Amino acid sequence: MRQKIIPSVMAKNQQELNQYFKKFKGIVKNLHLDIVDGKFAPNKVMMFPFRLSKEFSYNAHLMMKNPLKFIEKNINKIDLLIPQFEEIKNPHKYIDWMKSKKKKVAFALNPETKVTQLIPYLKEIDYILVLTVHPGFYGSKFLPQQLKKVKQIKKINPKVKVIVDGGITTKNIHKVAEADNFISGSFIKNAKFPKVAIKQLLKESRI
């Protein structure tokens, strides 16, 4: 299995976003957009009419209430849309709608959400994002007990791709080697050489 480290982006305006594009150009092909509406979590990020660089493909983690309007507006702009499972009122209907649009189906799980709540839908889902922090901010406290969700999900549906997001560093990434992809915010953002930081994370993930 070839794991990926995907840098996360939290920008308050286009100027900040452009700085991220410049920083990661030629280093990664995929970026993870953290979009927070100020209601789901007490922070407001990426809630401006952003313009995306064609240099990358994009995931978007939608930390927002009622994400369907955002999804409709941006469905052709973003490759993988990841709303919070807790905010999708009719998961079966949503899954069918996304498939009709030829899009992969993905959900993010809050730390409080149990994997058992996903069981009726897990066979139909392509990606699950497991949050190992409380969402909305860079540098939130790592919650190691959330890592058990990766094995629980894989046991029910080994084909689903699991993304781990939050507080990932070279010191803890090996604890969740079963994950397919890792989102890294602060660790890469604060690194002097992002390319080296990504290589270090990948090396430790395989131990």
Give the SSE map.
Elements: E1 4-9, H1 14-24, E2 30-37, E3 44-45, E4 57-63, H2 68-74, E5 80-83, H3 91-100, E6 106-109, E7 127-131, H4 148-156, E8 161-165, E9 181-184, H5 186-189, H6 194-205
Parallel strand pairs: 1-2, 1-9, 2-4, 4-5, 6-7, 7-8, 8-9
Antiparallel strand pairs: 2-3
What does this structure look like?
The protein has about 210 residues and is α/β, with parallel strands linked by helices. It has one domain: Aldolase class I (TIM Barrel, Alpha-Beta Barrel). It is built from six helices and nine strands; from the N terminus they run E-H-E-E-E-H-E-H-E-E-H-E-E-H-H. Strands 1, 2, 3, 4, 5, 6, 7, 8 and 9 form a nine-stranded mixed β-sheet that branches. It is globular, with a radius of gyration of 16 Å.
Q: What is the fourth-level CATH superfamily?
A: Aldolase class I
CATH topology: TIM Barrel
Low-pLDDT segments: none
Strand content: 15-25%
Structural class: alpha/beta
Number of strands: 9
Rg computed from alpha carbons, rounded to a whole number of angstroms: 16 Å
Please give the count of helices.
6
What's the shape?
globular
Q: What's the order of the H and E elements?
A: EHEEEHEHEEHEEHH
Distance between the termini: 13 Å
| Mean pLDDT rating | 92
From the coordinates shown, what is the CATH architecture? Alpha-Beta Barrel
Write down the domain tally. 1
Q: Quickly name the level 1 CATH class.
A: Alpha Beta
Estimated helix fraction: 25-40%
Largest sheet geometry: 9 strands, mixed
Give the structure's gist in a few sentences:
It is built from 6 helices and 9 strands.
